[in-house]
Amino acid sequence: MTATDLTTSTATAAHIETTERYAAHNYHPLPVVLAEGDGAWVIDVDGRRFLDCLAGYSALNFGHSNERLVAVAREQLGRLTLTSRAFYNDQLGDFAEALCRLTGKDMILPMNSGAEAVETAIKVSRKWGYEVKGVPAGQASIVTMEGNFHGRTTTIVSFSDDEVATSGYAPFTSGFRRAAYGDIDAVAAAIDDTTVAVLFEPIQGEGGVVMPPEGFLRDLRALCTERNVLMVADEIQSGLARSGKTFACDHEDVVPDIYIMGKALGGGIYPVSAIAADHAIMDVITPGSHGSTFGGNPLAAAIGTEVVAMLEEGTFQARAVEIGALIEAGFRPLVGQGLLGVRVRGAWAGIDIDPALMTGRQMSERLMDRGILAKDTHGSTVRFAPPLVASDDDIAGLVTAVTEILAAG
Ligand SMILES: Cc1ncc(COP(=O)(O)O)c(C=O)c1O
Questions:
Q1: Which of 126, 197, 277, 403 has the fewest C-beta atoms under 10 angstroms from its C-beta?
Q2: Regarding beta strands 176-179 and 195-200, do their DSSP bridges make them parallel or antiparallel, or are they unpaired?
Q3: Which of 65, 6, 68 is closest to 32 using CA atoms?
């Protein structure tokens, strides 16, 4: 069977049926059942090959089954996987040191999922607000951005403006205000004496790879410093080489007060997340004030240390830039030829399809039929985030597929 064979096989249908019957319907996956992955490519239960242009929402920046990461994980699996933080383990110290070196911060606080790391940043910011800044008890506020996506916990969806993500989940956590993304005056107006942090994505991934105007991050840095408010960058999706730099904030040479990291920190193998900050902030955390059974476990730490080592070599960041140049050159001419907009930063792209032509979902389905997996967002947008091990030919194939699908209408 080839990637262009549209027939749903018995095996595919059976897996989908069982999944839909027993797993809650909180996603609407494309009808493909994956069984293997290697580098930028995945194989389904019928042996069809697909170029993975979602890469686990950038958790797979280093590719599927990355040899170095799998070797480290296997080694650690055979030695020790979990201690809890009731005891020390022989991996966490080295991981924390490596991640501090990468971020330039004094300390990290390890967690598992991205949402937990965001929750951690919120808690640390509030505690810093009360204990260091002197905000009156119970009054801390955090400014967030319109169109944000920071995860799915009750507190995090409390400041989401996505109807689907919030509907039915009230009552929400108070203490958040939204400002228009990329509008420094709106952010300034939202800050008052109770404000402890501005929480933002340097690039809004789920929003459709949306970038703030040039200079916004620098202005935000200056504003946060001036108003004694923590600048909290959610680099869970934008960080760790995806945008062509280690962190998306690096594009404007900006260093936030707190980095939030996840996804690729676990190499697509295991959930690993963390926040990083200096002592002046992180020292508000004391024994018992926050924690997680799995956070900082030796398996996570071993994988995370190797991820940092790979990032320190700089090759993935450089490859993201090369991939980005190919995507830009291929997609830009399509504006006016079926695309209303194209946004590219490193190996990360969002395309806005003319809704008169097709939806983002339809584009994703047609790409799937041509052996390419991608994900739509917000109706007519599709984002592409291939693993950073994708070849030039892989990217050429992506550009050809999008071009031909648009031409066919
Ligand atoms: C910017 C950002 N923050 C937080 C999250 C939540 O991460 P997780 O799904 O691991 O909880 C995501 C997930 O897509 C994200 O893109």
A1: 403
A2: unpaired
A3: 6
Tokens of 270: 């295991």
Q: What are phi and psi of 64, to 5 degrees?
A: -70, 145
Among residues 263, 294, 352, 384, the one annotated as catalytic is 263
The Cα–Cα gap between 31 and 25 comes to 14
pTM for the structure as a whole: 0.97
Please give the Cα distance from 151 to 118 (Å, whole number): 8
Residue corresponding to tokens 């001036």: 226
CA-closest candidate to residue 232, choices 128, 161, 131, 135:
128
Q: Which of 154, 237, 249 to mutate to test the pocket of ligand 1 (most atoms within 8 A of CB)?
A: 237
Indicate if the pLDDT at residue 175 is higher than 80. yes
Q: What is the pLDDT of residue 378?
A: 86
Please report the pLDDT score of residue 363 as a whole number: 98
Q: Helix 298-313 crosses helix 67-77 at what angle (to 10 degrees)?
A: 160
| CATH number of 67-313, picked from 3.40.50.300, 3.40.50.1360, 3.40.640.10, 2.60.40.1180 | 3.40.640.10
- Report which DSSP code applies to 241: T
Residue 32 CA to ligand 1 center (angstroms) comes to 23
